[in-house]
Design goal:
There is one protein chain. Strands 1, 2, 3, 4, 5, 6, 7 and 12 form an 8-stranded mixed beta sheet that branches. A 4-stranded antiparallel beta sheet has the order 9-10-8-11. By secondary structure, it is an alpha+beta fold. Bound molecules: (3R)-3-hydroxy-3-methyl-5-(phosphonooxy)pentanoic acid. The site of (3R)-3-hydroxy-3-methyl-5-(phosphonooxy)pentanoic acid has 17 residues, from helix 5 and helix 6.
């Protein structure tokens, strides 16, 4: 059996603006998704997504493409592309997917699972897909899931580490392995529908997106200067604009306010917003204190770290 994994991601700054060609800063996080593939004796394709209690069986890829529930069609579609490109027989296999990420929470769960899946498929069929190719196929899958994503999620989940991402071009940026707090606001979001509703307000958005770009540029400098307190303050400014464009929620605002009142360097939503997660930067002892206060209010959070590893094989 082959098992591959890939990290989730967190956007430090620049979400939404990145969809329109502005820069964003993304980091891979040490919460991962997994894909295990093994041969089976029956002439079937078994597909399991344990987080959703999904266990499906198909006689062949044609049936899989026809009968796959829409929320998982990216897997059957990319298998079709790989089968044609590499002339492989997708049969007599069991595919099991699992993620430790909250789904629909701004942590790139769909991209993370896609990258883990592609790494496992590449290893199983000896395709030798490079990180760039994994990223390309994961982007193909992300477009099926989210419509018009920027490509930042698949880029960071395949490469790991930290990236400045603009216009489809990832540029590595060096960051020390720091800790931060990720808190789930309690409701998932649907990135695709948030992106399409913002796209309808494009003219009204432009000024805000330019403001986000200015903050992100300062954030890149703060990272280069290793100035985390300034980075936190810039996160606060970025949050104000995200709130103005309507993607924050009262729960997210509450988590952010508690974080700031309790000594965080800064706090903001991360990812598409309208639910999902809040990112809090601060000294580790403050983060523990904030986590404790949030827990008493019913919020789940995780102390998380930058992960330098992208998609990788765990065992074979
Ligand atoms: O919420 P997530 O993990 O799907 O992240 C979306 C990030 C956006 O910038 C809002 C969209 C994108 O494609 O870049």
């Amino acid at each position: 059996m082959i098992t591959a994994s890939a990290p989730g991601k967190c956007i430090l700054m620049g979400e939404h603006a990145v969809v329109y060609g502005h820069p964003a800063i993304a980091i891979a996080i040490d919460i991962r998704s997994y894909c295990s593939i093994e041969p089976i004796s029956k002439k079937l394709i078994e597909f399991q997504m344990t987080n959703y209690d999904t266990h499906l069986k198909f006689h062949d890829l044609t049936e899989m493409k026809k009968q796959m529930p829409p929320q998982f069609s990216q897997f059957s579609e990319v298998l079709g592309v790989l089968m044609e490109k590499f002339d492989i027989q997708i049969e007599s296999i069991s595919i099991r997917l699992y993620t430790d990420l909250w789904s629909g929470a701004g942590l790139g769960s769909s991209a993370s699972v896609a990258v883990a899946f592609l790494c496992a498929i590449s290893e199983f069929y000896n395709l030798n897909l490079s990180v760039e190719k994994i990223n390309e196929y994961a982007f193909f899958m992300e477009k099926i899931v989210h419509g018009t994503p920027s490509g930042i999620d698949n880029a960071i989940c395949s490469s790991g580490g930290a990236l400045i991402y603009q216009n489809g071009v990832p540029e590595r940026i060096l960051l020390p392995k720091f800790s931060f707090l990720i808190t789930y606001s309690g409701l998932p979001h649907d990135t695709g529908s948030i992106l399409s509703s913002l796209r309808k307000k494009r003219d009204y958005l432009d000024g805000s997106l330019i403001e986000i770009e200015k903050i992100t540029e300062k954030g890149i400098k703060a990272i280069k200067d290793k100035n985390f307190t300034l980075l936190g303050e810039l996160c606060n400014l970025n949050q104000e604009i995200l709130s103005n464009i309507g993607v924050s929620t009262s729960k997210m605002d509450e988590i952010i306010a508690i974080s700031r009142e309790n000594g965080a360097y800064g706090s903001k939503l991360t990812g598409a917003g309208v639910g999902g997660c809040v990112l809090t930067l601060g000294d580790i002892s403050q983060l523990h204190k904030i986590q404790f206060i949030l827990k008493k209010l019913g919020y789940s959070s995780k102390i998380t770290h930058l992960d330098y590893n992208g998609g990788r094989i765990e065992s074979k």
